[in-house]
Amino acid sequence: xxxxxxxxxxxxxxxxxxxxxxxxxxxxxxxxxxxxxxxxxxxxxxxxxxxxxxxxxxxxxxxxxxxxxxxxxxxxxxxxxxxxxxxxxxxxxxxxxxxxxxxxxxxxxxxxxxxxxxxxxxxxxxxxxxxxxxxxxxxxxxxxxxxxxxxxxxxxxxxxxxxxxxxxxxxxxxxxxxxxxxxxxxxxxxxxxxxxxxxxxxxxxxxxxxxxxx
Length: 214
What we know:
Layout: H1 3-14, H2 24-31, H3 35-47, E1 51-54, E2 58-61, H4 63-86, H5 94-101, H6 107-116, E3 141-143, E4 152-158, H7 162-170, E5 178-184, E6 191-195, E7 198-202, H8 204-207, E8 210-213
Antiparallel strand pairs: 1-2, 3-8, 4-5, 4-8, 5-6, 6-7
Helix pairs in contact: 1-4, 2-3, 4-5, 4-6
């Protein structure tokens, strides 16, 4: 299977396509590709037995598609951990390199990499690393934007977007950081948190891309 096709399977998995039907538009938005191109590729993937199309409802992964996409996510997230821990990459730099490496990683190499890293559960951005059989460790989370004043929690997951990760890094916000919500402005206004004795003001949009302990 080509890297391009694999990227489609991975995107469908991340959108929830292991269990739910995903609209073509959502896939197009996630991959920044036209809906027509998505439809063309999904037709090919359906012929290969990787996805199942339900007319007027959407697409979901077949068991084979689930297995392939989980292996890709596993490869990707293991490489992100390796690049961060051992090659000096920042958490905003690892994604692009892992996008390349995930497609050329054999099951044996992935197994060796996992053992070398001492079997990490999460990537640097807090996303769970699938096991060899495709299972993902589920942890109840909520968005920081859903919290109330005086709530305390710990950051567990953030959206993998380079600009956003740099935004967080500038404010010394990391996975595992504990904080307290000090104030929330109305009408989706800024949210002020206290983290390591510092007050940090986050936009509502940023708070929607940060997940914390439920």
